Structure formats: C-alpha cells, structure tokens
Amino acid sequence: MPLISFFFSLSLLLPLSLCMMNNSMSSTQFQYHNGPLLTSPINIYLTWYGSFSPTHKSAISSFFSSFSHPALPPLHPTVSHWWSTTQAYKDLAGKPATKTINLAGKQYSDVACSLGKSLTHSDLITLVKKAITRGSLPLDSNGVYFVLTAADITVEKFCMDSCGFHNNVELVPGRKVVVAHVGDPAMQCPGTCAWPYAKPAYGPPGPALVAPNGVGVDGMVMNLATVMAGAVTNRAGDGWYQGDRLAPLEAVTACPGIFGAGAYPGYPGELLMDRRSKVSFNVYGAGGRKFLLPAIWDLVTGTCKAAA
C-alpha cells in the first residue's frame, strides 16, 4: 500500500478570502476520523540538507527548544502557550495531543548534498534512513524526523503547491515514524511560504513585515509549526481534519493567513512589535527569542485561535 504524504498547500499561507471563510466555519465541520494522534512525548530530530548558517540553525533549534524551555515571565505569550490549543485534540481513548516536545541532541547534516540539489520525497526518506543506519540518528518510535533543506535546494512540490508535508513512514518492518519536510523559502517563494515577511506573490498587496530572525528563517519556523501541528493531530491521515483526506485542512491549515486578532485578507492580524527593531511577532521563545506562529483551529470555541 503506497504511503500518503499530507501536504499543506502554499495557498493556505496566503492572505486570501478563504481565511475568513474558515474563521466562521462551525466546529462540527472539523472532524475526528478515529485515527492515531501523537499523544506520547515526542522527540524532534533534525536533518540539515545543504548549507545553513549558524544563525539559521540557532533560530530553528531555539524554536523547538522553546517547548521545553519556555520564555520566563513577564514575556508572554510563549510558544508553549500557542501549542496549548492542541490539547483539545484527543484520540479514541480520550488522550490529548502531546504537550511534551523535546529537541533531540542528535542532529544530522549533509552539507555536501549527497543526493544532489533536486530532491524527490523518496530522497527525503532515504536521507533519514541513511542517518539512522549510520547511527547519526536513533530509530525512535516517538520521533518526528524533520528534513530541512537550504534555500538553493529544490524539492518535489515545494514552492509549487506545498510549503511542507508530513508522512507516516515505515522505515523498518513494523516501525513507523513521522518524516516531515520544510525548506527555506527565501529564494524560491518568499511571497507564498514566508508571508507576511515578504510581499505576497498573489492576493491583496501589502507591505512586508520586518522578520525577527530573517525572512527565510521565520518562513521556515511558521511552516515547521504548521507541519508539526498537522503531524501530531493527524498523524496518518485519519485523525483530525476537515475536507478531503488527500487534501485535508488540518489544525493550522484550517486557519490560513491568520496570525493575530482581526486578521482579514492581506492583513495578518494584530501582532506584537519591538519598538526599537520594528520586528513583528506574536510569541516569545527560549531566551526571549521572537517568533511568528500561525493560528490553530480551536475545537473548544470553533474559531481560529492566535497566540497574541
């Protein structure tokens, strides 16, 4: 049986009228399909493919570290506060989506781009298998394996109709893990996969916001958050989603273009702003680092819930 990858369309990050439509849909339209969620504590394993600067790696690592090392008061809201909305997503046994996300100490880098600079989805799975076979990464049933590709790496469907995806993969017989991909959109599609930190490629025009960590980096963080929420609440494609199973609206993709209160087409919503640097964001991470994370569909209120 072929594996199915669960993508989120790049159009779902655009400031289109669809975001307003989804913001008013009733919670009964967002349904549970009796499949598994990730309810146990999960470990995040990163595979870096291509050249990433230390600053780039630091920002993304800091995002994942923010779940277990939240910003200290009075900084609020935090990454963990944003994630708390997923606790309403429960499986058949009544267990909620995991609230424990740890960045694993082991990471794998392929700076030399051993599989070339144009990758298929099968190549991404091969990279993870290779890292595990070499002992660079462990085989962890509670692991989520992200393959991160640099700005000059092209990946099947990335920037064409997808900003990222997750897949439930059987790496060895009887052992399935989540493999996911997000690429750096800075060179290939900043207006679609890094909006609102870049002018939109389509839809209502508007000025780009100032990114706290860089357009490509913050685009990746937004997409990593989106993919992770989808993987946790819809691991194998039969968890929580709305619409067609092959093109589902998941926990975050049901809220396109919404980052703050009052969002409408072309406007991401009310955000926090650093008066000195003018950067816009909506959550604080580990060490006080600033991030912009998309709204999550709130099963309790039946609305898109933004952090700030």
UniProtKB/TrEMBL annotation:
Alphabetic keyword roster: Apoplast, Secreted, Signal
Q: Which GO terms describe its cellular component?
A: apoplast
Enumerate the Pfam families for this protein.
Phi_1
Kindly list the places in or outside the cell where this protein is found, as annotated in its UniProt entry: Secreted, Extracellular space, Apoplast
Signal peptide residues on this chain, from the entry's feature table: 1-19
Against InterPro entries, the record matches this protein to: EXORDIUM-like
What family is it from?
Belongs to the EXORDIUM family.
The name this protein carries in UniProt is Protein EXORDIUM-like 2
